[in-house]
Task: structure prediction
Amino acid sequence: MTLKECYTAIEGDYNDVMSRLMTEKLVSKFVVKFLNDESYNQLVDFMKSENIEEAFRAAHTLKGVSQNLSFTKLYEPTHDVTEALRANDLAKAKEIMPKVDEAYLQTITAIKSLD
Amino acid sequence: MNGQNKPRILIVDDSLLNIEILESILEDDYDIVTAGNGAEAIAVLQKESVNISLVLLDINMPIMDGYEVLEIMNEKHWIDDVPVIMISAENSVSSMHRAYELGITDFISRPFDMLIVSHRVKNTIMLYTKQKKLISMVADQIYEKEKNSNLMINVLSHIVEFRNGESGMHVLHVQLFTQILLKQLVKITDKYNITESDISLISRASALHDIGKISIPDEILNKPGRFTDEEFAIMKRHSMEGAKMLDNLVAYKDEPLVKVAYQICRWHHERYDGRGYPDGLKGDEIPISAQIVALADVYDALTSERVYKKAFSHEKAIDMILNNECGVFNPLLMECLKQSAELIRKELDKQTVSMGEHNEMENISIEMLQYDELSSSEETLRLLEYERMKNNFYISVSGGIFFEYTSSPSIVTVNPECCDLFGISEITNDPFHNEQVMSLIHPEDLQKLSEKLHNLPKDEQAVEYNCKVKFRDGEHNAVIICHPVYNSKSEYSGAFGKIVDKGI
Result:
């Protein structure tokens, strides 16, 4: 799978990321590194233990990273979870989490099948 | 400053991926240091803020967030010299306002564009570099100017003394004592409205107090025995003659230095009781500059050897002055003399010409402190860096165990050689919650030591505390010697010191 195809599969914005980070080589490098990013796992763990403060921080980081890499589909629900947690609304955050889970899975599956 | 001579950038972000993206943008042109949270960033700045050209700072981070980092950077005045660009997805206007209020130079929103980041970084560093260069140029010029004018004054007054057959130390002594007495006077009263720059001006001008002697004939000036009444009358003219010479400097007579020198020349032989010369002024009719120089002059005359007398000891001289055996002085100045007698004695013991230079440096730094924009100029930073190097060198050659603790932010630093001895790292953030650090000393000992430091009487410098300290190879007896540190509000803010190992 090429980088462009990968972005299609992720439902991300290929043109946007290329305009900001310039080269395919660089974008690919960071996209692959996303697999090692801990923020999603941290978010899941802290949601489980209902540690709102730490969950917020993890969500915030995941939001920032997905935004930087133009993972639009992952970015949107992560943004909503971040805002729910900022407002101390754990119930609402829990409600949105499945969307984050789904988008995250879709994202890493596509990245793993990059050339 | 650093090996490759590339500007060094500190990137602070809790997401490794974000750091890596920024690194890949910047690593070709800059030397990169990274920190995973605010506390780590503070530790880096604590160690080498002088070497950091720019900080890229995230807001939301664990342990210590970006705002707290900015607050500490303000408190420590690092922000005056180290520009900060904030990079965050917090794009609300209020969070941007808060960051700007805390002194950031620029704000970059996520998702960021590679070219924009690299341009803003480049521009910010360039602006700061230019500004620092300008500041250092101005500082160098002030320094040059000060040095030259002082040099000229000293050369001139030495010529007078040379004719007088004196060593040339008299001028330096009077200058030094004038400065010490003035500093003490400012501490005990604000009656005379003396500023730091007045102190520097008066002590500089004090060197000129006897220039009028240039007009006194040799045979009187250098007469070994007692003066006849007629000779004494001629000798006494030197104060008025000096004042006239200054008054005749048409082009310069309105310069503050010349005005003060005029007062000193004319009235440094007046007496507080009105029985002095040439004008018989009384009490505070005599300008405070002249009163102080008169006292400094008498003290130095007493403690120096002259053609007609031997030198008195410091103690004897002070006693004679306090008993009004050598004139009558302002009671406030007598108080100053009593309080600074010890300091004067110490300075007199040094008896070196270089002392003049040293004080000169101090004057200049005080002068520079008055210009806000110069307060942490490159020159000051260079001096600090020099002190740091010197300190590190002493520590490395003396082979002891040294530590430094600051309470806000709570950080403990030890010298690299002793990391091994204790199995702790060079810098520990939040040491009270660090198991390894806390296991070094029994909690009750730590508590007692802390109490001693907090309650140390003002006139004592250091605390010595005997206790057990846990080394890697077991508990040792040790003496902890430490010196408390106070912040600008005189509140306890940490300590530094040494651990002396007394063996198992």
Notes: The longest helix of chain A spans residues 90-112. Chain A has one domain: 3-112. Residues 60 and 98 of chain A are 17 Å apart (CA to CA).
